Amino acid sequence: MKFVASSIYHKAVRLALSEGLPSDAFKHHQQSRELQQESKHIPIDLLFEIYELADQHLKPGFGLRQGKQLDSDDYGTLGLSLKTCWRAKEVFYRVERFMVLITDHGSLRIEEDNENTRLILYRNPGRKGVEIANEATFVMLKGILHEVTGQKIHPVAVQFKHSSEAVQDFFEYFQCPVSFDQKVYSLQYKNKDIDISTIKADKSIQQYLIERMNEEKKGIHANADWMLKEIHQLIKDALPGGIPSLIEVAEHLGMSARTLKRRLAEKELSFRDLVQKIQREIAVDRIRNTNQSMAEIAFQTGFSEQSSFNRAFKRWTGQSPADFRKTN
């Protein structure tokens, strides 16, 4: 499951409501456990859906309007770090390095030559919500440069991979050539324009904030697979009573079977493969580390008959359970 900072979602919601989007259009979002618990990060699909509803019901250019209202305060520790960067160009490098603190959907790469610095966004537009998110990202970055320097710094070229009905609006905002239907998402600045000091440049604070961000980054990676951990425990606990269904596990997680299936697919997993992986792990552990009978282990791994367990175990390991115990 890909995530995004909840502050970005809430700003999009407030903007969409202020422009006339009916709240009933996304009433089902209230069922999200992350929103109910006021989590720092939420499923990014919720943000994409707001963007898509805005595109359907509001005037064109919602990505531009969303990006213009985003500022450093929406990005937590990363936002503080951007304010105190030593030079304006460091904003790009800081976002490239710590983008995961805001979202794990997509990535950034910086290309720099003697004259220009080019930021390339790798987040392919598989749906309209992603297109709008990419627009908001570039608009936000230009706004951040103005915020941290106090100067209106314009890029020299902006490229989007998708098309838009608000081309003129984007041109007026960026004040440079803006191209759509291109091969890449890119934002390009002259080096001389962004090689300037920020208003609150502070190297000592920078070091402290970088250490903080590294810790946050570790925490995000550690919790990235929370769903898999919960599913693993649910299936493990349920196996002695039989293999649970996808619907049963989804209900325990507070989501639909379709949503769970999609989120597993994002991790290149199927529910069936996951169940068999857990069965195998339990079986191997019990055979290797306990004196339990094969019948007991078969029961604990969800098999009603030992013969079915024996066949499955041989398919998993290439050995019968008895032979595996002898050699391990």
Secondary structure layout:
Elements: E1 3-5, H1 6-18, H2 33-36, E2 41-43, H3 44-57, H4 62-69, H5 76-83, H6 90-98, E3 107-112, E4 116-122, H7 128-149, E5 157-159, H8 167-174, E6 178-179, E7 185-190, H9 191-194, H10 203-223, H11 226-238, H12 246-253, H13 257-266, H14 271-289, H15 294-300, H16 306-317, H17 321-327
Parallel strand pairs: 5-6
Antiparallel strand pairs: 1-2, 3-4, 4-7, 5-7
Overall spatial form: elongated
The rounded Rg comes to: 25 Å
- Tell me how many strands there are: 7
The largest β sheet comes out as: 5 strands, mixed
Tell me what portion of residues adopts beta-strand conformation. Answer: 5-15%
Kindly, what is the distance between the CA atoms of the first and last residues, rounded to a whole number of angstroms? 37 Å
For the largest beta sheet, what order do the strands appear in spatially? Answer: 3-4-7-5-6
Question: What report would you give on this structure?
Answer:
By secondary structure, the chain is of the alpha+beta class. The chain folds into two domains: about 5-220, no CATH class; about 225-325, Arc Repressor Mutant, subunit A (Orthogonal Bundle). About 55% of the residues lie in helices and about 10% in strands. The protein has a five-stranded mixed β-sheet with strand order 3-4-7-5-6. It has a two-stranded antiparallel sheet with strand order 1-2. The protein starts with a strand and ends with a helix.
Summarize the structure.
The longest helix is centred in the middle third of the chain and has 22 residues, at 128-149. This protein has helices at 6-18, 33-36, 44-57, 62-69, 76-83, 90-98, 128-149, 167-174, 191-194, 203-223, 226-238, 246-253, 257-266, 271-289, 294-300, 306-317, 321-327; strands at residues 3-5, 41-43, 107-112, 116-122, 157-159, 178-179, 185-190. Strand 3 and strand 4 form a beta hairpin.
